[in-house]
């Protein structure tokens, strides 16, 4: 039986031209007692998926049920109770309370559920993540990886039926990471808990029973009994599948490459290259190259080069100016603006 079920779940943030579709009609079930890894490029909707599934965000459309309850039908108080009693969540940003010690943070879910934290249970959870000797430390006195492990201990202490963990090993060295993954597997196989874990690491994903891939807010396949090299290969093929070529207009895939041949803007949120041949801006937020041949700006926030072969300010990265190209190629694409002809390759992103 699926303890968590998403049916055609969509989530849009913002409105009008700034609207972002973080999830696009995702239907997915998580069987009780299973361990699922969720993977996909940065911005593909993984955290949003977890937050909708855990009742922390309300979907814009579609339905989520947890332990047989349709979350949309629950009053706020019943939803809060369900979250406290059935669901554990390890946040990507840890969300520890800075004024509390490690043991007080770990005891928090019990306190919120109206119980006095059992000191032994709290100690056991901290020991399980190798932090028995840091119980009295506050988050600011702990390293990033130690804070992440406190957040995991906090999620374990109430033994939730479903544990959502958003990149729980993202800040850990390989030994701590192996330790945490071994704990998660034990919870699934010995205690029958259900785990849904976001990760970028194919080795971590290989500890799961199944991997779910997301691309641009959509389900892009699943892999049962994953091994690290198959997962890595699937991730690579997802990235190259995200290419988008437009004659004019705006291209905005979240992973993969974007190219606008006429005028317009290209923006890549995950890794990949963005290129604009007419006038316009190219921007890459993950790693990759941004290149503009007409006038406009090229900007790279992760690693990579921004090449500007026209004129215009260049806010970041490294640039190559090439006046000849700018003269021989004025912003001819501008005349094409509005004629949006999207030629999509496999798995193309929306624009
Ligand atoms: N509160 C919000 N307001 C507006 N946009 C948001 C909000 N939260 C997420 N988004 C957007 O929704 C998309 C999906 O974000 P999400 O955090 O789910 O991605 P992710 O797959 O978890 O990425 P990462 O691997 O970087 O953590 C992104 O484009 C992001 O910019
Ligand atoms: Mg995330």
From TrEMBL:
Does Nucleotide-binding show up as a keyword for this record? Answer: yes
Which residues belong to the signal peptide in this entry? none
A single MF term (Gene Ontology)? transmembrane transporter activity
Q: Which Pfam families match?
A: ABC_tran
Disordered, as annotated region? 302-323
- Which of UniProt's keywords are assigned here? ATP-binding, Nucleotide-binding, Transport
- From start to end residue, where is composition biased (Gly residues)? 302-315
Q: Name one GO cellular component term.
A: membrane protein complex
Q: Which Gene3D superfamilies match?
A: P-loop containing nucleotide triphosphate hydrolases (3.40.50.300)
Q: PROSITE patterns of this UniProt entry?
A: ABC_TRANSPORTER_1 (PS00211), ABC_TRANSPORTER_2 (PS50893)
**CDD domains given for it?**
ABC_MJ0796_LolCDE_FtsE
- Keyword Ribonucleoprotein in record: no
In which domain of life is the source organism classified? Bacteria
Residue span, ABC transporter domain: 4-241
Q: Which InterPro entries does the protein's record reference? A: AAA+_ATPase, ABC_transporter-like_ATP-bd, ABC_transporter-like_CS, ABC_transpr_LolD-like, MacB-like_ATP-bd, P-loop_NTPase
Q: Name residues in a coiled coil.
A: none
SMART domains in UniProt? AAA
The name this protein carries in UniProt is ABC transporter ATP-binding protein
